[in-house]
Design brief:
This protein is an alpha+beta fold. The chain is built from six helices and four strands.
């Protein structure tokens, strides 16, 4: 709370004060072991709509990059894609994150947005706090991998093996 006040953040489009929005947001996370927090930021936005679009794109992109790197690293460590050609492997690495981005948007839920004005440029800086149910996200990550493998023309056996690896991974 002190951070928001000290930095000049104000809650956007909500009748709740920041402390109430924060309490509600963290209650959702702490009262559900499957919920995680995502934060998206954007700077130099001239409208709330551009700020909101930027924060969701930022949160989704960061999430997708992090989980795709982690999952692909685990799959590689298990040797599951050793049989994949170089071109298919490159495709898999470059497109899995994109597939996650396309699909995960349906799973994230915005909690609240804060905004502050950049006094020098007159533009706005936005931060949106989201929650994501990891149970839903796990299914989405699996779907993203299936789509990626299908688009890479990967063998069916490989698709099944990788699906099983993803299913066995902890949240």
């Amino acid at each position: 709370m002190k951070y928001f006040n000290k930095e000049g953040w104000q809650i956007a489009q909500s009748s709740l004060p920041i402390d109430a929005a924060l309490a509600r947001h963290y209650d959702r996370i702490y009262n559900n072991d499957n919920m995680i927090e995502l934060v998206g930021t954007t700077v130099n936005a001239k409208t709330l709509r551009l700020g909101a679009d930027g924060t969701s794109a930022n949160a989704i992109s960061n999430y997708a990059k992090n989980v795709s790197s982690s999952i692909l690293g685990k799959i590689e460590a298990k040797g599951a894609i050793d049989q994949v050609t170089g071109a298919q492997r490159d495709f898999l690495h470059s497109n899995y994150s994109i597939e996650i981005e396309k699909l995960i948007i349906r799973d994230i839920e915005p909690s609240f947005t804060v905004v502050k004005k950049n006094k020098k440029s007159g533009t706005m800086e936005y931060e949106t706090y989201y929650v994501l149910d990891e149970n839903k996200a796990k299914l989405t990550r699996e779907e993203a991998m299936i789509n990626t493998l299908r688009n890479a023309n990967a063998p069916t056996e490989l698709t099944q093996e990788i699906r099983e690896i993803i299913r066995q991974m902890p949240e």
